[in-house]
Queue: 3 jobs
Job 1
Amino acid sequence: MSTTPRPLLTQREAATACGVSRSTIRRREAGELPGCVQDEERGWLIPVEALLAAGFRLHAPAPAAGPVAAGAVGEDVAGLRAEQEREH
């Protein structure tokens, strides 16, 4: 078991790490993220443990941007399959 404490993240860092908006972090910070501390230079700092306990996933992928992104992924998959078939 590691004794190294996990870092404290700013709202922006927490939002980026969790793949959510800053407003989502701010709403949850108010009541569900214990252990937050205010730093004069960095603002509110949120413990990684509090994010995990509130149900956030760190390094979650950003959601796809609508049907265009979903179509592009489908085209990429189809192209890769076609390439794989040509090689075999």
Note: Confidence is low (pLDDT under 50) at residues 68-73.
Job 2
Amino acid sequence: MVKRLISALMLITVSTAPAYAHLDPVEHGAFAAGFTHPLFGLDHILAMLAVGLWAASVGGKALWAVPGAFVATMALGFGAALVGVPLPFVEPVILASVIFIGIMVALALPLPTAGIAAVVGFFALFHGHAHGGEMGQADTFGYSAGFLVATALLNAVGVAAGIGLDRILATQRGAFAKRIAGGLAALGGVWLVIAG
């Protein structure tokens, strides 16, 4: 079962790699352009899934607090980009978020929920800033609603995957499978750094 889950995760990861173009908001609408924006970048996908896995690994209030912190702070980063607040090293920090969050999931260190929320919030600021910087001529409300919904859904998929692994494989094997998934996310981040 673990081999199938890992194979499925790898297949999803590989199948998203060539999709780097973004939808035209004039042709497809601002919401669609915003919604698909995080889905067209492997760095965003891996980071957001890893956030959900990390939350599922901790459980309890982390299930909503960690993804909530990510989405809320991402909105702040988006707003900062819109008003012209510069944020250095946006792309390198986004790549670092994939590696760091993946490693944290793999290590399964016992950290408080507030600390995890602060860490993912820090990285979310950069993800949001990137979305704001790439908005183009899209309507602000529709575009931001789109990428925030997509982000929340990706976080939810990560949470659901983590919970599902615990239920399918039993708690101890599920925890190990989540750690493997975190390690794979981190390796995906390293691959993105090398490939970029």
Note: The radius of gyration is 16 Å.
Job 3
Amino acid sequence: MGSPALKMACAKMHEAGVDPVAIDNFAHYFRLLEHGETGMVPESSIEPIGMPSLADVEVDPEVGAQALRETVVIKLNGGLGTSMGMDRAKSLLCVRRGLSFLDIIARQVLHLRAAHGAPLPLIFMNSFRTSGDTMAALARYADLPVEGLPLEFLQNKEPKLRVEDLAPISWPDEPDLEWCPPGHGDIYTALRGTGLLQQLIDQGFRYAFVSNSDNLGATADPRVAGWFASSGAPFAIEAVRRTPSDRKGGHFARRKADGRIVLRESAQTLAADLPALADLDRHAFCSTNNLWFDLIAMRDALDARQGVLGLPMIRNEKTVDPGDPSTPKVIQIETAMGAAIEVFDGAALIEVGRDRFVPVKTTNDLLVLRSDVYDLGTDFVLDQSAAEVPFIDLDGEHYKLVGEFDRRFPEGAPSLKQASSLRVSGDVTFAKGVVVRGDARIAVDGATRLDEGTVLGAVVEGDTGAGA
């Protein structure tokens, strides 16, 4: 079994009823951690990579519709939005017209089913913290479940490890904080361990489309489905060109040693390589976390490896209570689902438009999504109505948490469709009908309220007032 710390961790997982294959996966990465593995990908080991663009691909509409009929949609829905001050599933956040992420996702899928005559099952990978609220919210959609298939399966969990000796942390005051998810790379282990992977194959499905529930741009587009089915690739990821806001994020590259595509996350980048990570010309593409895989190819790969794909490890150091930096430091062993691209011969990348990548990680993103930058059509697909998506930088002291953010936009988001950027420093409340044009910056010392109809487009400083 290994070291005393590993034995303690595995025993804790067994007592909690964690799937044996998930325990085997955890043990695999624990041993790597014990032996000093960091998961780092040196710049010297990789080279830039190019790829075809979806805009240049011809897809027969019937091929796309047929591919959609063989596709299952899986949404990653394990996040609580703790960085935004939430303590329940982030997908329950209101986005547009009183609809949450979950409402819009459900309606997107129901529309696609009707438009293409596809069963298109929708299944959520929930965590033990998001399952209850999510299933309660989806109960209103009586037509959503597909006969014989669940609406959810649960992500596995693993113990947080003490930094000093890798033993599982004990936190009696709040035992739930002793556990963490193993990263979204756990999706493959969970699909296999629950039997859902084989169940989908047995019911005639061939492809899976996986994306994050906080990315409403990630719809099961028949054009992308048709491209993937026609490519013959066992695994593919949708990529977008990186922008300045992506400088600190991960990117795709090709490994020199074997020619495989790799996805290097920022947590896998050496300090000396950070300038190369930020070089948008050298590493031009990042992941949308929208991925496609052949269900049979995935089953065969998992069977051949006894359920352990062996994805690159990510060593994530945090505090046992993410909301309290004074609590003890712990290590969370994680993997990224996109890293599976290096497992498969013939894996592919496709460049897609930024409209398929609209993630909400902060309240800055939420403000854009709630604004008139996007329209929500009758198909419940986001349509970008602005010429560009503006850069938003809201003062973290006043806007980082959803509750504080909502109080400062009591009558909705300002108009941003004519904006290039909006930077807010200080405590500013926006009345109804505020309009932002071009590059706008507000810097105030005290609490300030912008009047209805205010037009922003120049620097506003002081305790009160706003100007164009």
Note: The domain at 363-462 is CATH 2.160.10.10 (UDP N-Acetylglucosamine Acyltransferase; domain 1).
